[in-house]
Amino acid sequence: MKSSKVEIMSREHKIPEIQFENQRLTSFAGLVVFQVLFKQLAIKQKLQNCFCHLKVSPIFGHHLIALCLIVHLLLGYRKLRDIDYYRDDPMVKRLLGVTRLPDVSTVSRALARVDQQSVEKIRQLCRTWVLERLVRTGFSRLTLDFDGVVFVTQGRLREGTAVGFNRRKKGARSYYPLFCTIAQTGQVFDVYHRPGNVHDSNGAKEFVMECLERIHEVLPYVTIEVRMDGAFFSDEMVGLLHEMGIEFTLSVPFERFVELKRLIEQRQRWQRQDETWSYFECPWKPKSWNTRYRFLFIRQQCKEIHKEPIQLDLFIPQTYGYQFTVIVTNKTVGMKKVLRFHHGRGCQEKVFGELKSQSQMDYIAVRRLAGNQLYLMMAVLAHNLTREVQMRTEPKVRGTTEKRSPLWQFEELAGLRHHVLQRAGRFTWPKGKLTLTITGSPGVKEDLLRFLDALKEAA
After folding, report:
1. For residue 304, what pLDDT band results from cuts at 50, 70 and 90?
2. pLDDT at 169
3. Does residue 263 contact residue 233 with C-beta atoms inside 8 Å?
4. What CA–CA distances, in Å, run from 36 to 41, 42, 118, 306, 396?
5. Residue of 345, 340, 349, 341 whose CA lies nearest to 276
6. Which residues are bridge partners to 190 per DSSP?
7. CB atoms closer than 10 angstroms to residue 6
8. What is the DSSP string of 272-289?
9. For 261-281, what is each residue's pLDDT tens digit?
10. Are 292 and 285 contacting, i.e. CB atoms less than 8 angstroms apart?
11. CA distance 116 to 270
């Protein structure tokens, strides 16, 4: 029905007076969705088991501090000092099971007292939750992506940081953790923390083998695939993956093998895939290797001029209008499927971007190494829990694709925060029954009821 202008316009422009009273109002009524999820996962009890070995017994236990950090990051806050902005929110206090939130100094001291054993238990808890999801979903094929991310700090007194190679911030101290993510769910399976002055391959072999073994113990029937960039490329890594029966694709760095440039420049006939891509393949091995593997030499037609510095044209082939890449794999499918599978690694970069921009993963909270590791793991758990609540409430939208895209259409944490979490509400007790009253917007009502009903059915 069309409305008139008189029915729409208002002449009330007076600025109201402002008063501050305790009215049991909450700005985050949508946290009731995570309250149901936390209860189903028994998250408080499991976090408490991760810190039970610590002999100190503060009023706010370490498990409460950890849970507080998860909620802190779900709400979109970054610095510890930002706790003051929601200190009196009744929904947050009800979710944590406290009548008062800890002070910033209390959180800082708790992070300073965390030890490596606590961090290892949190890592184990993260792996357990991801494995439970994989078992419940029943995947027949899993794709693991491995890569590192740099966390830069301006401080000089952060324990465990070091000056490493950084094109944008030269001389800055940083951490350089290594991540393992699951392509089908977009979750982080495990994190290996390292200082910023190490190469990508430092400790990578042990970390990769540990992740593969843990998944194989729980899911022995699953076909496992691995994707890595050129920093992980080595005879030892390729041989281990091949011996374990893992399907893999690894980018090959031109700087390591001068023969690659010669093979590409001497090639006269390329098999054309389409207008952009052409390739050739051959069983090849460097002179120091013992086994030949399938190497794909790929040429991409492009109009961009190579802008990177060229070291006397010694290693990388330079042909105007083309870019070259080399991939080593033990997959037996055609070049197009191998290339699309390997390019699917871009989904991991999207996960890293979301972890940094929306879960504040790159924030270095305190000076102690273990405290910063715990903060990082809380950011990872906040991200994984966001994906978990959507996988419990939303159906799959796609099957297994060539790029191994996530099977669900995930909404980013920022969108979930704006649409669901940041909703105004009021706690009341009509006839002695606790009630959370939220604005009657149709969109908000539909989203909240959809999440709550689905979570109750999944319980």
Report:
1. low
2. 82
3. no
4. 9, 10, 26, 53, 22
5. 340
6. 180
7. 6
8. E-SSSEEEEEEEE--TT-
9. 888 888 888 888 888 888 898
10. yes
11. 53
